[in-house]
Amino acid sequence: MKMRQLNTILLTIALIACQCCNAASLAGPQSVARMSLSSSSRFVTALQGGGKGSIDEATVKDYSGDAAALFGNLRVPAALFAGASAGAAFAMPIGSADSAVVGAVKRAYALLMIGALSCQIIAVVVATLAMGSITTSSSISRNAASISEYLNGNLDFEWVTARFNFLMGILMFVMGSGLRAWVSIACPVMAKGALGIIVSATCLAIGFINRVEVGSGGGLVRLFTKFQRLSFEHVRKDPFFAMAYICSAITWIYISVNVPNYLQNM
Asked: Which residues contact 13 (CB under 8 A, 6 or more apart)?
């Protein structure tokens, strides 16, 4: 009697378990079907033009590392050119026995080398500070659709300033080197040949620079005007930028006024 009761209880438990398993097996494919249906519906919605935000989010990425690498590509050669310019700036002292032409060339050489040194120092400082801002500043948005959008949205003034001063520093250094070769080489044929090589290299460099800038949506003229526009915007906000702008203007006015007087006394 007890055995029959035990068998009946076990049989009842087995039937209940079987029913639970059947219910779970019937519910499982339905839930999977619902998941696949919802996924396919979202995919169709995206293809039809809906869900645009999810597609745009997929194209946005972190470009902070690429931006820091671009500034680093400017900082290293700018530092090298700054050191070379500093060492060469006073390599041709002006003597009383110099002819008028040689004296004028030496003065232009010194001005070009000092200008190259100043431009490269600005490029090094701006690039270094920009790299630090990329790493530490909380106001910079790290995600963008492209590296251009990242730079234009976060570090537009820094990128334009570093690039413009780096390029101008190189051009000044190359022109100064040509003048030095023309004065230092005793043979007039070789001196003129060296000057011609420097001039051709300078023109080729300007051509490549302008080609790259045109490919970026402008040219050397546009880069210069953009640098001046952004600088003037900061002049109205920061007194140090205003002081730098005023000193630069006074310097070029002074040079422009005194160069004709020097030429008359030659």
From this structure: none
Strand intervals (E) in the chain? 61-62, 143-144
Structure tokens at 116: 């190259």
Q: Nearest CA to 160 among 78, 48, 74?
A: 74
Place of tokens 């310097």: 251
Contact 227, 164 (CB under 8 A): yes
- Residue 179 to residue 92: CA distance in whole angstroms: 10
Burial class (CB in 10 A: 0-12, 13-18, 19+), 185: middle
How far apart CA 214 and CA 70 sit, in angstroms, is 18
pLDDT in tens, 127-138: 999 999 988 887
Q: How far apart are CA 46 and CA 212, in angstroms?
A: 37
- Global pTM reads 0.72
Amino acid 95 reads G
Q: How many whole angstroms separate alpha carbon 10 and alpha carbon 147? A: 71
- pLDDT band of residue 23 (cuts 50, 70, 90) is very low
Strand, coil or helix: 142 = coil
**198 closest CA partner among 221, 172, 174, 182:** 174
187: left (phi over 0), alpha (psi -120 to 50) or beta: beta
Collapsing DSSP to helix, strand or coil, 144 comes out as strand
Which residues lie below 8 Å from residue 245, measured CB to CB, with a gap of 6+?
231, 232, 235
For the record, the structure tokens of 99 come out as 């002819």
